[in-house]
Predict the 3D structure of the following.
Amino acid sequence: MTDLLQSLLQTGALRIAPADRPFWYTSGTLGPYYINTEYLYGSREKAERFLEVIEREKGDPLRCPSVLLTEVRRNYAEDPTYRDVMDRIAEVARREIDLEAVDYVSGGERRDWFFSLMAGELLKKPHLLIFKDLGAVSVDPAGQVAPVERLDGKRTLHVADLVTEASSYVRAWIPAIAQRGGRLAHAVNVVDRDQGGEEALRAQGVETHALIRIDDATFDLLRKQGAIDEAQLRTLRAYRADPKGAMRAFLLEHPEFLENALASPDAREAERARLLVETDPYGIVKREA
């Protein structure tokens, strides 16, 4: 886990906020860390370039898989960080899962594809790309692409970049496979945020594994390595125990933080601060009668 944790830090895939300056999330909430697992593709720049390729190609589902597969094969050969992550995924799958009973490796649009396509390659399984509209196409190890309408009795191993509460699985990926008569039977997630996703997947009958779990042991290791200080460690532990309560306490103790964000010249920060005021997720905004 130590090597993977170092890769998360070195690529910027895991960023820890100063204890007195939590990050603004797009939902208008706050948190002490960001995870952009796709940066394990090698760097933020490489990940953003691959996302551009996905955006450009996804409108043609019968061309898209071959183009993406060519990209990840090249990156696997060239980038040691990405190669290490992919080899770990394949190792977990071979060790923990009866691959003879797996018919496809699946991945959902978009960030799963960073890892699921190459996993299919390494495990010598056809890959099932699931789109946000629940459309699906397969690409086999020879590069042959075909639309997938039926999966009668077929079982998939889903590879994802990140699991938080497993909402994408429950809302999209599991139903997309089930409606075709198949079953999403296994999941390997690169990162598990340890916020209920594993339990939610098991409730759906999915056997789940992760390369790394963001939990108190991970935070302790970060502190031991000197990557964070004591104040950050306390904030991370408090947030993991009670995300809403920890950030509510922070805002009550630091009212100037929200005031400064609302007046920020950074348009994105100000917009997220306004969203917090409008939705009041922490129950701290005083509303006029």
Notes: The two ends are 53 Å apart (CA to CA). Residues 2-35+219-279 form one domain. The chain has twelve helices and eleven strands.
